[in-house]
Amino acid sequence: MEQVAFRQMKDGTREEYLFLEGLEEQFNAGLVDRLLDALRQLEHSLSGYRVTRLEHSLQSAARAEADGADEDMIVGALLHDLGDDLAPYNHSQLAASIIRPYVRGEVTWVVHHHGLFQTYYFAHHFGMDPNERDRYRDHPCYQSCVDFCERYDQASFDPDYPTPPLEHFEPMLRRVFSRTPFDPAVIGEEHPLEP
User: Which residues form the HD domain (predicted)?
Assistant: First the structure.
């Protein structure tokens, strides 16, 4: 079979869906390569900062690694701004959706909310409330997100910070994304993304 015969999903046969599942497994095996390509594209993304978006992502991950964070958090730091190009107003949520099947729930929550938590550093310049993050103050992942933004995200615009190349993080990406998606032993407790 080269392609299915159905024109509506409800008309598909078991054989057709097994065929498609096999193709999907083959395609999904290339996920890390596609993520690496997407990260490389950040080299040519939003400008105006002293580092590229790729350098910012690498530096965030490097800071997490130097801080002793585990692989889940380091990968979260590496991919946290991956959505900048395609979802500029909800890039955090896009990145969180990408990592969600493979990392513990805390990391997904932190990446999902980091955009809002980052406004703490600049919202006052636009007449906005820099403490809007405090609506999550009672959430068990609140402090983790505060720490992520303070230690890894907002600090990672330094062109002099010793930042490893993308290849340094590739083995880690491959390990994390080789996990069984949504494995309860990995993701643990999923924290509600909204109150």
Answer: 53-137
> Which DSSP helix (H) or strand (E) runs through 106?
helix 105-118
The per-residue pLDDT for range 101-115, each reduced to its tens digit, is 999 999 999 999 999
Retrieve residue 5's tokens: 């015969």
User: Under a CB-based contact definition with an 8 Å cutoff, are residues 43 and 53 in contact?
Assistant: yes
Q: How many CB atoms lie within 10 A of CB 163?
A: 21
pLDDT digits (tens, 9 = 90+) for 178-195: 999 999 999 997 777 776
Cα dihedral 134, 135, 136, 138, rounded to 10, equals 90
Alpha carbons within 13 angstroms on the beta-carbon side of residue 88 total 5
Which uninterrupted H or E stretch holds 32? helix 31-41
Model pTM score: 0.93
